[in-house]
Design brief:
378 residues; mainly beta; 7-stranded antiparallel β-sheet
């Protein structure tokens, strides 16, 4: 590995990869070290213009936001609350501020650089998610939990659920989806879909061990147990426009941990030996495509419009891999011999966390996506 320091505030690496298993290609990339401190920098979230992460400075939790358009970084939260559950778009950042008393939902306007407290009560408000018009979160009451909707335009709050245990909402294009259990001891969960414009709630599915529930565009995806085997999860896809459910996988192995960004769905499939990465084209005529086929675990795929990235185990550690859709080639982005985790994509950058063996903390790195990745769909 060859190192080249070009900018005082960052460290750039000129990295050459090697050909592994015959499916990876050699390339050269400039990798920038975004953070370099003695604290744990948590996995970043990213939109087109902004990204954000939380730094734990020995109990003093900070949230940092780089503005890609202005090439600047500023701190927006500095205090003794545990700021977790960050979600971002190119206008707002929302998170859960946890104190010794309870948890509240915070909103930051990235354009005006203004912070708002969206909740102020004795309940725990958790798991915020947002789109361009609304924010949703889970509010825990004494014997139940509800889904709360906040309208960014009217600045009004609405309760979407009515009792029971409603959990972990997601939102996209005027639809909210979440899991519901009748009681805490119940193994069976329901998936509920709320239409904001029509004020209607629809039950999409009922199953044991529903996980990775998400919504993007007009599709909802989830993994659920459909057999006597406790770990045999299959992946399902619901088309909101057509009101149809498709079972994407049919096997006796574990399918889980996926990313949804129509027209693609990426997920992990256990082949009986280890986890591999698969890519499925929604409304396509083909079966899911295997992007990896090796003897080590490939996990936690993420998507943008033209690429899939994931973390893959190698003989020397955990590295970051990238597959530009349509090229048929996988690129090994890092070759550090350490532990690279939590890959994140926007349309221009690939970001991840790296464990620093010198400081025994995690730092954040990023690289511009290769030309092949941005041009794959053109």
């Amino acid at each position: 590995m060859y190192y080249s320091i070009s900018i005082p505030s960052t460290i750039s690496f000129l990295l050459w990869t090697t050909i592994i298993y015959g499916q990876y290609v050699s390339h050269r990339l400039a990798i920038s070290q975004v953070t370099d401190n003695l604290y744990n920098d948590q996995p970043p979230v990213a939109a087109a213009r902004f990204m954000a992460w939380r730094t734990d400075e020995q109990g003093d939790y900070n949230i940092s936001v780089p503005d890609f358009g202005r090439d600047s970084t500023y701190c927006i939260a500095n205090g003794n609350t545990n700021d977790v559950g960050l979600a971002i778009n190119d206008h707002y950042l929302v998170w859960n501020a946890q104190s010794d008393i309870n948890s509240e939902i915070m909103l930051y306007d990235l354009l005006t650089q203004t912070t708002y407290n969206l909740s102020d009560n004795l309940s725990d408000d958790l798991y915020p998610a947002l789109d361009n018009h609304y924010i949703v979160w889970q509010r825990n009451n004494f014997y139940s939990s509800d889904i709360i909707l906040y309208d960014l335009q009217t600045q009004k709050t609405h309760t979407l659920s009515n009792g029971n245990y409603n959990m972990m909402p997601q939102i996209a294009d005027n639809f909210v989806v979440w899991k519901m259990k009748e009681n805490l001891d119940s193994e069976v969960e329901q998936i509920l879909l709320y239409d904001i414009k029509r004020h209607t709630t629809t039950s999409l599915a009922s199953s044991k061990h529903i996980s990775n529930l998400c919504i993007k565009g007009t599709y909802v995806a989830w993994a659920a147990n459909q057999s006597i085997y406790e770990t045999d999860n299959e992946i399902f896809l619901y088309d909101i426009a057509r009101k149809t459910t498709l079972q994407v996988t049919h096997n006796l192995q574990e399918d889980n941990c996926f990313a949804l960004l129509p027209p693609y769905l990426a997920f992990t499939h256990n082949d009986g030996n280890d986890d591999e990465i698969y890519l499925y084209q929604i409304d396509g005529n083909s079966s899911p495509q295997a992007l990896t086929d090796n003897n080590t675990d490939d996990i936690f795929p993420v998507l943008n419009k033209h690429s899939v990235a994931w973390c893959g185990a190698t003989e020397s550690g955990i590295e970051i891999f990238l597959y530009p859709i349509g090229t048929g080639k996988t690129q090994q982005i890092t070759c550090s011999g350490g532990f690279q985790t939590h890959a994140t994509l926007n349309e221009e950058y690939l970001m991840w966390c790296s464990f620093d063996f010198d400081g025994f903390d995690t730092d954040i790195f990023k690289t511009n996506l290769p030309i092949q990745a941005t041009a794959a769909q053109k």
